[in-house]
Amino acid sequence: MFENLTDKLERSFKILKGEGRITEINVAETLKEIRRALIDADVNYKVAKTFTDTVKQKALGQDVLKAVKPGQMMTKIVRDEMAQLMGGTATDIRLEGTPAVVLIAGLQGSGKTTFSGKLAAFIKSKKGRQVLLVAGDVYRPAAIDQLKVLGGQIGVEVYTEPGNTNPVQIAQNAIAYARQKAFNVVIVDTAGRLAVDEAMMQEITAIKAAVKPSETLFVVDAMTGQDAVNTAREFNQRLDFDGVVLTKLDGDTRGGAAISIRSVVDKPLKFISSGEKMDALQVFHPERMADRILGMGDVVSLVERAQEQFDEEEARKLKKKLVKDQFDFNDFIAQIQQIKKMGNLKDLASMLPGMGKMLKDVDIPDDAFKQTEAIISSMTPAEREHPEIINAKRRERIAKGSGTTIADVNRLMKQFEQTRKMMKAVAGGGLKMPKMGGMMRRR
Prior knowledge:
By secondary structure, the protein is α/β, with parallel strands linked by helices. The protein folds into three domains: 3-85, Up-down Bundle (Four Helix Bundle (Hemerythrin (Met), subunit A)), CATH 1.20.120.140; 100-296, P-loop containing nucleotide triphosphate hydrolases (Rossmann fold, 3-Layer(aba) Sandwich); 302-442, 434 Repressor (Amino-terminal Domain) (Orthogonal Bundle). Helices cover 56% and strands 10% of the residues. The protein has 20 helices and ten strands. The strands form two sheets. It has an eight-stranded mixed β-sheet with strand order 3-2-4-1-5-6-7-8, with helices on both faces. Helix 5 runs parallel beside helix 6 (141-154), helix 7 packs parallel to helix 8 (198-211) and helix 9 (226-239) runs parallel beside helix 10 (256-265). The longest helix is centred in the C-terminal third of the chain and has 21 residues, at 406-426. The two termini are 17 Å apart. Mean pLDDT is 77; it is low at 429-443.
């Protein structure tokens, strides 16, 4: 979502990296370009101006004009101030009480119901809690059905009361049920409207007063830009929520809401969400997001995702096979499955410093490994365990069985051999994942 902003900021910093003497005029020109880049990214004008004024004050105070590398000095100041603008550090969700109640609010279409499911999965897997989802949107039957489907996917019970049109009563009854059944977290999905209206505000306020949540989260669609920030401000004035959730960050959004919402609402941005998959939810880390905006990547988040999928016992077994040169297609496909569990491939690659810009015009589809998996699935168990027996005749049969060409099979065999050699070479110092070469294509 920040591709265009990142490009414009990089161009801004080049003013200070060019030839010639660095002056206050150069710094002013850079800041003017930065402010323009932020506004183009749909950042609130006042926020953008205050931000650049603060950066200017700090830049001149830290002798950027005398610095050996003024461009790098300015980049650091902008990075630090941007992280501060977005909240400084991550803010954890509060789960207090027996049970802890989390109230979800927002406009219709903002992604509340999907987020409720993602949050339930997050709390269940990351916090180890027993979660109950509550279908409190009594006006949209599809929302109740959707929540049931999501609950089934993640193994979380969904509380419903068919025929009851009182959301306050449903929420209260759900909490009583949770206490009875030993659930320690209750997530209440509420109704949205197409616009902020008095009836909606009164209803959500009444629910909050009745259930006394330890956390009230406002869900907003990032694609609505500054409208998202303005809606959050209106809700906060009436609801006094605890944090904001930005959804649909994988859409055609310029990212301005993520940068300015904390400053305008004075409430932390706690989660960011993209896609429909239940694991596509991230705790918002301002400093990491600032790094990504400035093209520095986000290696910390990448490592965290890898560690979540890391199995020490399996790694030890794999290392032994590598040393003995016994790495086979079963191991190869297992490594691919681990990569897929980590999330969207382009998103993962963009976490590496400098890769975001390189991948700007590269398409890495979610099914990038589909052909590879089809080819391996067409192999016999013996072929997967002993790749060396795959001769020309077998390759022809595998290609037909997988709906690919012999050239595709040959390409995979070559890639597999390269991966096996590379992994054997580093087996003594650590494991690496298979290369994804040949699976990306330019748009």
